[in-house]
Design brief:
The protein is α/β, with parallel strands linked by helices. The protein is 40% helix and 14% strand. A seven-stranded parallel sheet has the order 3-2-1-4-5-6-7, sandwiched between helices.
Length: 406
C-alpha cells in the first residue's frame, strides 16, 4: 500500500541550508519521510533557488505565499491567516488528502483555525521559545528597545493565543517544553531535538592545528559569543599554539568587525562545513544568549570533534560528560589547552559523543520520535473532536510504505 501524504509548511527558506532554522526545516522533512510518509513541503524561497530541482523521492517542494523578510513588518501576520497560502494547502489536500498537517516555526499558529475543517491532526513546530529569545536582543536606543518589547509582546500573545489549538507542539529541548507547560497541557508537548543525518565517516580525518567556531553570524547570539571569546579568552598562549577559524554565514563580516586581531581566520560560508569542523582540533561554543539546542554542538558530536562550550552553549543537549563545559574565561581557555595537550583523551571522548549522537540526535532516532508525535496527535485530535477523525494516520501503513532516507 502506498504511503500516506503529510503536509509540511514553513516560511523558512531551507535552501541553501546555511543556518540553524534552515537545517532544522530540512531535517524535519527528511525525518517525516524516513517515518514513512510522502511529504508535500510548502516553504520559503528567499534565495530564489529552483525548488523543483530540490524534489526527491517522496518529497515535493512548493513556494509559500509569504516569506521571512516580510514577516515581521506587519503585526497582522501574527494573528491573521494568509488567504493565498490557505487555498494552496486546501487545493493540495483536495488532490490527495493529507494524513496530518505540520506548520513549522512558531508563528504559523494563526493558520490552525483555517485548517481545522479539513479533519486532520495539526502539529505546530517551534525552533525556540521565540518570545523569550527576542527579549534577549540588545538594543541601544530607546526606540529600538521599545520596538523589541513590542515584538516580544506580539510573539508572547501569539504563543498563548494559538498554540493551544494545535493537536501537538514540537519543542527542541526539555527546557522549552517546561516553559510551554506553563500554558499548555503536557499531552500535547513533545521534545524533538535538533538532529542531522551524518554518516560516521570522520573517525580518521586528519586534524589541522586549529579550533573552529561555526554558525550563522547574522544571529546576535553568535556575534555576542565570538566577541566575548576574542575579548576575554583568545590570548597570547592560545595564539602561540593554534588558529581560530570562524565559519558560516556572515562570518567574514563578524571577523572584520573585530578589528585586526592576530590568529583569526574567517572561512565564510562553506559548502562542506562538517568537513571544516572535522579537520579542527575542537569546536568552541562560547554562547551566553539564545535558546533551543545548538546544531553546532550536535554536528561536532556527529563528526567526532571535541567541544568546549559554556553551559548556555550546550543547554538541552545530552552529552554524557563528553563536552568540556566552562563558564568563565580562564576555565574556557584551560579547557582548550587540555584538548590540545591530550588529543588521545579528546578522541576517546568524541567517540563516546558519536555513540550518543546515534542514539539521540540522528535521523533514525528522530524519525521514530516524529512517528510517535503523529500517532499522539491523531489520538488528541480524535478526542478533541468527539471521536470523529475523517482522515486518520495509520502508522503501520506509513511504516510499510518503503520510505527511503532523503
Amino acid at each position: 500500500m502506498a504511503p500516506q501524504t503529510l503536509l509540511y509548511a514553513s516560511y523558512v527558506s531551507p535552501f541553501p541550508a546555511h543556518s540553524g532554522e534552515r537545517i532544522r526545516a530540512l531535517n524535519l522533512i527528511a525525518g517525516f519521510r524516513a517515518a514513512g510518509f510522502r511529504v508535500e513541503a510548502i516553504v520559503g524561497n528567499h534565495d530564489n533557488v529552483d525548488l523543483q530541482a530540490q524534489d526527491r523521492d517522496g518529497v515535493r517542494f512548493h513556494r509559500i505565499a509569504f516569506e521571512w523578510p516580510r514577516l515581521r513588518q506587519s503585526a497582522s501576520v501574527y494573528f491573521r491567516s494568509h488567504g493565498t497560502f490557505v487555498e494552496q494547502v486546501r487545493a493540495l489536500h483536495r488532490a490527495e488528502p493529507f494524513a496530518a498537517i505540520v506548520l513549522d516555526y512558531g508563528f504559523m499558529g494563526a493558520h490552525i483555525g483555517a485548517f481545522a475543517g479539513l479533519g486532520v491532526p495539526i502539529v505546530l513546530g517551534t525552533h525556540n521559545l521565540e518570545s523569550a529569545l527576542t527579549g534577549q536582543i540588545a538594543k541601544d536606543s530607546f526606540g529600538a528597545k521599545a520596538a523589541i518589547r513590542l515584538r516580544q509582546g506580539l510573539e508572547f500573545a501569539h504563543e498563548r493565543f494559538f498554540f493551544g489549538a494545535a493537536d501537538a507542539v514540537l519543542c527542541v529541548s526539555e527546557e522549552d517544553r517546561r516553559a510551554y507547560a506553563r500554558f499548555l497541557g503536557p499531552s500535547r508537548l513533545h521534545v524533538v531535538p535538533n538532529f542531522v543525518d551524518v554518516p560516521d565517516n570522520y573517525a580518521g580525518t586528519p586534524r589541522d592545528n586549529r579550533i573552529i567556531m561555526s554558525g550563522s553570524f547574522g544571529n546576535f547570539q553568535n556575534v555576542d559569543g565570538l566577541d566575548w571569546f576574542v575579548r576575554h579568552v583568545w590570548d597570547e598562549t592560545l595564539r602561540a599554539r593554534t588558529t581560530l577559524c570562524v565559519a558560516g554565514g556572515l562570518s567574514d563580516r563578524a571577523v572584520a568587525e573585530l578589528g585586526a586581531v592576530p590568529g583569526i581566520a574567517a572561512l565564510g560560508t562553506r559548502e562542506d562545513l562538517l568537513g571544516e569542523m572535522a579537520r579542527s582540533r575542537c569546536a568552541i561554543v562560547p554562547l551566553w544568549l539564545g535558546g533551543g539546542t545548538r546544531l553546532k554542538c550536535i554536528e561536532a558530536m556527529a563528526t567526532r570533534t571535541p567541544v568546549v562550550t559554556t553551559s548556555k552553549g550546550c543547554e538541552g543537549i545530552v552529552h554524557g560528560g563528553t563536552f568540556r563545559v566552562a563558564d568563565d574565561a580562564s576555565a574556557f581557555r584551560a579547557a582548550i589547552h587540555d584538548v590540545l595537550d591530550n588529543p588521545w583523551k579528546a578522541a576517546q571522548e568524541s567517540a563516546l559523543a558519536r555513540a550518543i549522537f546515534d542514539r539521540d540526535y540522528s535521523l533514525k532516532a528522530n524519525a521514530a520520535r516524529l512517528a510517535r508525535v503523529l500517532e499522539r496527535a491523531k489520538h488528541v485530535h480524535t478526542v478533541r473532536n468527539g471521536g470523529r477523525l475523517r482522515q486518520g494516520i495509520d502508522m503501520q501503513t506509513a511504516a510499510g510504505g518503503g520510505a527511503k532516507r532523503s
